[in-house]
TrEMBL record:
Family recorded in the similarity comment: Belongs to the paxM FAD-dependent monooxygenase family.
The entry's keywords: FAD, Flavoprotein, Monooxygenase, Oxidoreductase
Source species taxonomy: Eukaryota, Fungi, Dikarya, Basidiomycota, Agaricomycotina
A GO molecular-function descriptor: FAD binding
Protein name listed in UniProt: FAD-binding domain-containing protein
Organism of provenance: Mycena rosella (Pink bonnet)
Domain FAD-binding: 10-375
């Protein structure tokens, strides 16, 4: 595919996470040949955890040509079992078999590193059009001169790098977002949600002596145990070789010892104490974790931004819409952003239109991404209720789901699924580009 500006545009991407990698790949697929990724870390080093590959994401991964790299790792989900934490009573069993038929792709889950590696393989195959710069941290940005300030390999010296377009996929702690807000005298305001998450992975050999747990590993189901202020979601990944467990609970650890990092090794005894009132099956599961492998993430969000664009610079992914994990859509939305950015940029015929093009991208993406951030937060509120009467009403709603009721867990609510999974960001961009471009032109 050729883009009118494809051979001339120098595009710098901040951050080689899910969003940055997908953006680079989509740009090359759309005809761009001079794409540079600047990543602060020395390698991709993704923490071990599972990730949900919903239909809206697998659709794009297939388009990007990287699905084959991770297909073997993925596990297809056929049902979601929602259970009371203390009794293990199944409150709701939602079949997911309709997903493939209704949205053209099944709902899958996979290892996070399988997704990252698939995107990385795609980028490497796109060499020389994509160049990686590891241990290259963006420390500043000059919006007028269109350049980023990069500190490489921990050197004291920083250097400025020019670019025609700068795409900031530098995550929830985004330096570029901070600079963009500062330009307008606004405060960068990453909000503490008061919640944290343990990410745990059990291997088959750790579970195979326990028939009940082994059945879960061999199933095509997610298991969600809900209790006051805490819940656990677990599912098999890596072709049923690994059981991925992710929790949400009140943040005690980070609140007690604030650090610059929002990810840390955590204490196994503290984790067991946090879930001590959960049913024996959950406790046996948590007991199996190797003490040195308990990882905890602080969960943060950001108030919606007025804009994602400044001049020739645009934010994407967690940099502009960090989310709670309850819908499993953070990475998917970052990747959709990247795909749409590539389409929009590929349609531009004049350098003078780059700013307008980026505003079109914002129009295409902002409302959807921010709506999903709100829905994830709403789902979290429903799952983590503390008031007994409200819990009882919610649990009854769960029981009624099989009779066509709406689901308090938005992740398995049919209307939310229609909105999230039934959406093709490429079709949407193609459909609205002309109209939005004309509208943005009129406003400038
Ligand atoms: C507990 C938990 C569970 C989750 N589960 C799911 C799930 O099941 N499904 C899902 O879709 N999403 C999930 N998410 C969300 C998902 O992980 C994120 O939304 C997604 O990774 C965002 O991608 P990103 O590229 O925007 O940011 P990131 O993946 O965070 O990547 C940012 C990159 O930028 C780099 N960087 C940062 N600062 C700089 C700098 N100054 N210079 C250069 N590089 C820099 C970082 O090193 C990193 O590589 C979960 C999140 C959490 C916390």
């Amino acid at each position: 595919m050729s883009a009118p500006l494809g051979l001339t545009l120098r595009i710098a991407i901040a951050g080689a996470g899910m969003g940055g990698l997908a953006t680079a790949l989509a740009l090359v697929q759309n005809g761009f040949t001079n794409v540079h990724l600047y990543e602060a870390a020395s390698n991709l080093g993704f923490v071990g955890a599972g990730i949900q590959i919903a239909p809206n994401l697998s659709r794009q991964l297939q388009r990007l040509g990287v699905w084959e790299h991770m297909a073997e790792d993925a596990v297809e989900l056929k049902e979601a079992s929602i259970r009371a934490c203390a009794t293990n009573e199944e409150l709701s069993n939602v079949k997911l078999t309709h997903v493939a038929e209704r949205y053209g792709q099944p709902h899958r889950v996979a290892h996070r590193s399988a997704l990252a590696n698939a995107l990385y393989q795609g980028c490497k195959a796109a060499a020389p059009h994509v160049t990686f710069h590891f241990r290259a941290a963006i420390v500043g940005i000059d919006f007028d001169k269109r350049r980023i300030q990069v500190r490489e390999r921990d050197e004291d010296e920083e250097r400025w790098i020019d670019a025609d377009v700068i795409l900031a996929a530098d995550g929830v702690k985004s330096v570029v977002r901070k600079c963009m807000l500062a330009l307008h005298g606004e405060q960068d305001d990453a909000q503490d949600t008061g919640q944290a998450a343990y990410r745990i992975m059990l291997r088959r050999d750790q579970m195979e002596h326990d028939p009940e747990l082994l059945t879960m590993l061999d199933s095509n189901s997610t298991f969600r145990w809900i209790g006051p202020q805490r819940h656990i979601i677990a599912y098999p990944i890596s072709n049923h070789a690994i059981f991925n467990i992710s929790t949400t609970h009140p943040d005690v650890n980070f609140a007690a010892e604030p650090t610059a990092s929002w990810t840390t090794r955590a204490d196994k005894r503290t984790m067991l104490g946090m879930y001590a009132d959960f049913c024996p099956a959950v406790m046996r599961m948590l007991e199996l974790v190797t003490a040195s492998e308990v990882c905890e993430w602080k969960l943060r969000v950001h108030r919606p931004l007025r804009t994602w664009v400044e001049g020739h610079v645009a934010l994407l992914g967690d940099a502009c819409h960090p989310t709670l994990p309850h819908l499993g859509q953070g990475a998917s939305q970052a990747i959709e952003d990247g795909v749409v950015l590539a389409i929009v940029l590929s349609k531009l015929t004049r350098m003078d239109d780059i700013h307008t093009g980026l505003l079109v991208y914002e129009r295409l993406r902002k409302a959807r991404a921010e709506y999903l951030v709100e829905e994830a937060a709403a789902s979290g509120r429903a799952l983590l209720l503390t008031d007994p009467a409200a819990q009882a009403a919610r649990d009854e709603a769960f029981r009624q789901v099989t009779h066509g009721g709406t689901n308090p867990d938005k992740w398995v609510d049919r209307a939310v699924q229609d909105f999230v999974y039934g959406f093709d960001c490429v079709d949407d961009a193609e459909k609205h580009y002309g109209e939005y471009f004309a509208a943005e032109r009129r406003q400038l």
